[in-house]
User: Fold these one by one.
Assistant:
Number 1:
Amino acid sequence: MDQSFTKVKKRRELLARTKKQFNKFVFPSIGAMWFFSLYNMVDGAFVGKGVGANALAGVNISMPFISFLFALTILISVGSSNLIAFHRGKGEKDLANKYFTQSILLISVLGLVLGLLAFFNLDRLIGFLGGDQATFSYVSDYLGLISPFSVFFMLSYNLEILVKADGFPKLSVWLGIVCSLLNIILDYIFVIVFDFGIRGAALATVIVQVLGSGVYLFHFISPKSNLKFSSLSFNLPKIFKVIKMGVPEALTELSIGFTTFIYNFTIMKNLGSSYITTYSIIMYVNNLVVNTMIAINQGAQPLVSFYRGRENSSSLRELANLMLRTALSFGVFFFVICSVFSKNIVGIFIDQANGQLFYYSVSKLKIFSFAFIISGLSIVISGYLTASKHPNAGLVISLLRGYISISLALFLLTRVFGPDYIWLATIVSELISLVFGLYISFRSLDLRSNIFHLASQFRIF
């Protein structure tokens, strides 16, 4: 009896410790991602109010390129972070340092190459992204300033992920707060006071990304950092290992850009370019939701990898439960906020004086927000599978959610029911993705034979 009681007590203590670690890593990650997303929303607000609706649409058209940069960053950073945490958990510090150094070198090279390619092929890039006569000059002004500094966009995001693997998640939160506030101040100065237009918003973002990269690098060269730079030549097997683990999360991030691209294309074809402003507003809110779910993954994945290195199944089950419950809670929270405060949210970006466009945007945001309730579940399922060494299953879920189901939903709904059903496509897509995601995850984790075991593994409520 005493032994049984002691065993239960130890298990409860272990789960309490796991939950404490989860909160320590995940909520700072969410905080950092919120500030990142919110200062992007502030960018949009200053552009929409200070320059105009076409300029806001121009920023929206630019977003797939920005998402592509961040997706490549995640491809390297998340895989590196998971492997760093795994080897730190096994006590293999030298190998962890090699993955850390390799990650920074790869990101720096990719950022420089992609930035130069974009800058010297700007007109072709804008044409590919869908810029038309009304928005071309705005996209050119925005990307023309951002593209040469692509390396800092990628490096700052890479280092923000690695600093959590280093054991300093709070640093990313505090730096995120400072950078967000600075970006808001610079937006006001450049866009409103100096009247630099859309270039002012781009300049503010560039300055913040450069400063953020510098602060993170200073942390890693300081004595308090656990991760250290090591001598390294590029090791192809290690690079492929990093990429394999980072693909699902990279596809999730890239799906933001892909979804924006395909929505823009469908709206232009079925409704007209003026309605891209409506989707621009929805996109900012949707990105906040998706980035919150990605932050849950990024915060929890080092813990999943660490406990997998320790072969601690109890903590792994508890982490899966916490990830799902957190994603569902935030999904409901965002839905309620968008339902109750839809006019206030739309009013951040365009004036109520816009009349028809304003009220149209309000009604479509309310419809779109139903997708937020479930959107995070398939994202965190994919992230958990990736960190627990099931990257192929995570890849399938990411491809289905971010590309296949949304493309089919947009195509079929507009063809069968008409153009205005565009705004239901994400809800349909998320439902399809969740059903298939649950099925794939249960098969991958080999939980098919025991429904009670399955319920304990994914205990949402």
Number 2:
Amino acid sequence: MNVIVITGASSGIGMEFSLQLDDHFSNIDEFWLVARRRDKMEELAKMLKHRTKVFAMDVTKEGQLERLEDALIEKNAVVRMLVNCAGYGLMGPFASGDLEGQLGMIRLNCEALTSVTHRMLPYMRRRSRIIQLASSAAFLPQADFAVYAATKSYVLSFSRALGQELAKKGIYVTSVCPGPVDTPFFDIAERGGTTLNLKKYVMVPADRVVRQAIKDSYYRRSISVCSFPIRSFGLISKFTPHSVILKLMGTLKAMDSVR
């Protein structure tokens, strides 16, 4: 049995991956949707043409992840694609932020992603693919977004190194690094702070990000960046000292606050 496993499938980019991949593959037997909200995934499953199995679980709990691995063994399944979308971000100063929320970002964005990937790899075969959701925040440190940017930097670095390791096995890894995306992400992220108004001018719809990511995965690209402004930002972050960019971002944020 060939399956696609998608974490964070109950909303946002994870849901969009489910919808678009449903139209791309005829050789997949089942989609396995993973998230905490069963009701949202069951609604999504009704929209998909493929047979769908719903795993309502918290991927930060190792004991719950065992259920997913047990299902792979029981079904003698091959994971043809793993899409890791589970994650969240919190804005605001680190010192005054909720510590549990900050640690939760590390557990979900880094530890859970690593654990899910490690558990799925034994069930992958040549031409299997992994798509990891990072962020343009991975390109450089970001004040008032410190932990989130650090977690996404981890995802990007981990994914690129893993792709190099797995290339000889014919398994390809793509790290998706979008800028601001029009999803419920900011409903959570802005509870403790706000993003630059400038970022909202370059916001793109989730379907565009996912379409580009699927294309880049098909062409075995290690990084997928959607939109010209974010690609430009990535280039600038490579060739400009981060201290200069951080100072500029601080100035822009101060200007936003007085408007």
